[in-house]
Write a structure and sequence with these properties.
This protein is an alpha+beta fold. Helix content is 16%, strand content 40%. The protein has one helix spanning 5-26, and strands at residues 42-46, 52-59, 62-63, 69-70, 73-79, 85-91, 95-101, 110-116, 120-125, 131-134. A hairpin with a 5-residue loop joins β5 (73-79) and β6.
Length: 136
C-alpha cells in the first residue's frame, strides 16, 4: 500500500505548528511589562502551609466605649512560623513606630522606636523586667 504524497505533506505541515506550540509551552512565563500599580485594602503573604507570614493592612479609625479615639493606621506585620508578629511597623497622622518583639515564648522582650507629633523615643525591655526609655 502506497502512502499518498498529500498525506505526508499534511502531516509534516501539522508537525511544525505542534512543535512550535510545545516549545512555547515549555518556556517560563514572563510578564511583558510590570503592572503600574497594585490596589488593595490589604495584602497577605502566606507560606507553603497557608499560614500568614506577613500582612499589610489599613486599620480604620475607631472609638471605644470610654470615648478614646484611634486614628486610621497603616500596619505592616512580619510573623514567625509559630504565628507571633515579631516586627510591626505602623503609621498614622498622630504617630509612627516600629515594634521588634523577642522570640516566641517571650512576652516582655521588645524594642520600640517611635515618634509622635512632638517627641521621639526608644523603649527597650528585657524578659527579666529591666526597661530603659531613651528620649532626646
Amino acid at each position: 500500500m502506497k502512502i499518498p504524497f498529500t498525506m505526508v505533506g499534511l502531516t509534516v505541515l501539522n508537525i511544525g505548528p505542534a512543535l512550535i506550540s510545545i516549545a512555547q509551552a515549555l518556556q517560563p512565563a514572563r510578564a511583558d511589562s510590570p503592572a503600574d500599580i497594585l490596589r488593595a485594602r490589604g495584602i497577605q503573604i502566606v507560606d507553603d502551609r497557608g499560614r500568614v507570614r506577613a500582612s499589610l493592612t489599613v486599620l480604620p479609625a475607631t472609638t471605644t466605649e470610654a470615648g478614646l479615639t484611634s486614628q486610621e493606621t497603616v500596619l505592616l506585620r512580619l510573623i514567625t512560623e509559630k504565628g507571633r508578629p515579631a516586627v510591626k511597623i505602623g503609621a498614622s497622622e498622630q504617630a509612627s513606630g516600629v515594634s521588634i518583639a523577642g522570640a516566641t515564648g517571650t512576652k516582655d522582650t521588645y524594642a520600640i522606636p517611635g515618634a509622635d507629633a512632638t517627641a521621639s523615643s526608644l523603649k527597650l525591655r528585657s524578659e527579666d523586667g529591666r526597661a530603659h526609655i531613651i528620649k532626646p
